[in-house]
Specification:
Layout lengths: L8 E5 L2 H4 L7 H6 L14 H15 L3 E5 L2 H4 L8 H16 L3 E5 L7 H5 L8 H12 L8 E3 L4 H10 L1 H4 L1 H4 L20 H21 L3 E3 L1 E4 L2 E3 L4 H17 L7 E5 L3 E4 L2 E2 L19 H13 L4 E6 L6 H20 L4 E7 L17 E3 L6 E3 L1 H11 L8
Helix pairs in contact: 7-11, 8-11, 13-14, 14-15
């Protein structure tokens, strides 16, 4: 017997800036040209043109859901310009998924914003929420038939990135830049998420949720980067303080949502000074994170507790590694911990692996998370054994995971 509900979503995820290529109107495209040591996204995986092939590979493997994003900078390349051609492009993506029997999980904002939005002050400008409202209202025109919509990806990590944005403007500060996907984003030189920024993002999310509920029939939520934090002895009070800034503020903001996206990769200790950077170790992943497949179960349980039982959709989980057998081993163990959480009564609606493709990891190409390898010159897709393995799990709805 399977642990997972009928209709459980099995799939994979991507983000537009990381796979599409040539997102020239975005703030990230501009930043890539300024910061020393930061690799360019360039053509990325050329998924802007090859999304049909990507979805076909996903469907052929036996997966049933694909999380992808709409790129705000393409929809609104200028503040007073809406590209109807780009809206039609993303509608074609939705239609392609539906025609293949794939459930589209659409993310409206995944870290990159239009350059003009950043230049007028970004998320902390007085007009930011109204700007986002207009964008969301515009995108609702193409969301017919979409059952799942994520408003904002990882607002807690976004809050850190907003605090770090000065690094792209200050020539001296640029020297200290590091990708947010390099472990540890909680290292001392990285600022913790600002509660002020977090509340602004929660306001934007609530506005988007209201628009989406009024204009679509989709389930609406946002996704949170879950650290699966654990207190050292005597650091329980510090853990509460750190969890509030890093996760719980955002999880509490999801209590009225239709689902909450859990995004988990590893776990970290909290001591009396805060989060401990993970030390070098032979088992560490390509980002320097600890090899902790059990983190997914921890993250799902914590999320369910703080949100009060909002349905969970695992919107990201994976491992950056060159060894695909290790990817399979990690994912199998992570899914076993997820199954145990479901058995204990947590309402989980699906599992979306990060990532479908080896892609641009916010400043560098080395961390390979994908179920599919991509040649960056020819763009040839080469499915890895892990894609077929996850598809085999999906076909039987995970029924052999606990055996």
């Amino acid at each position: 017997m399977t642990t997972f509900r009928e209709g459980f979503l099995w799939g994979a995820a991507t983000a537009p800036h990381q796979v599409e290529g040539n997102n020239v109107s975005s703030d990230w495209w501009a930043r890539e040209g300024l910061v020393p040591g930061m690799e360019r996204s360039g053509d990325a995986c050329d998924s802007y043109h090859r999304y049909g092939q990507d979805m076909q590979l996903l469907a052929d493997a036996g997966l049933t859901a694909y999380r992808f994003g709409v790129e705000w900078a393409r929809i609104q390349p200028e503040a007073d310009v809406v590209s109807h051609a780009e809206l039609a492009h993303y509608r074609r993506m939705i239609d392609t998924a539906l025609a293949l029997g794939i459930t589209p999980v659409v993310t409206l904002f995944h870290f990159s914003v239009p350059r003009w939005f950043a230049e007028e002050g970004g998320w902390m400008s007085d007009q930011a929420v109204d700007r986002f409202r207009f964008y969301v209202e515009t995108v609702t025109e193409i969301l017919d038939g979409v059952e799942w919509v994520c408003t904002i990806n990882e607002p807690n990590m976004l809050a850190v990135m907003i605090s770090m944005s000065r690094l792209a403007a200050d020539p001296e500060a640029r020297k200290k830049w590091a990708s947010p996907t390099v472990e540890n984003p909680l290292m001392p030189e990285f600022p913790p998420p600002s509660e002020h920024i977090g509340r602004r993002l929660a306001e934007a999310h609530a506005v988007a949720r209201s628009v989406l509920r009024e204009r679509t029939g989709a389930k609406v939520g946002w996704t949170v980067a879950n650290r699966a934090l654990v207190a050292r002895q005597g650091a329980e009070k510090k853990l509460e303080e750190v969890e509030w800034l890093w996760e719980n503020l955002y999880l509490e903001a999801a209590r009225d949502d239709d689902f909450i996206g859990v995004q988990s990769y590893s776990s970290q200790w909290v001591n009396e000074d805060g989060v401990e950077p993970h030390p070098p170790h032979p088992d560490n992943t390509l980002t320097g994170a600890a090899y902790r497949p059990d983190a997914l179960g921890m993250a799902v349980r914590h999320t369910a507790e703080v949100t009060g039982g909002v349905p969970v959709l695992v919107t990201e989980n994976g491992i950056p590694t060159r060894d695909d057998e290790r990817r399979i081993a990690y994912t199998r163990e992570a899914l076993r911990h997820l199954a145990a959480a479901v058995t204990d009564g947590i309402d989980v609606r699906g599992y979306l692996h990060w990532s479908l493709l080896d892609n641009y990891e916010w400043g560098h190409w080395e961390p390979t998370f994908g179920l599919i390898a991509v040649d960056r010159h020819t763009f040839e897709r080469t499915p890895k054994p892990s894609l077929a393995w996850l598809g085999s799990v999906a076909r039987v709805n995970g029924q052999h995971l606990t055996s």
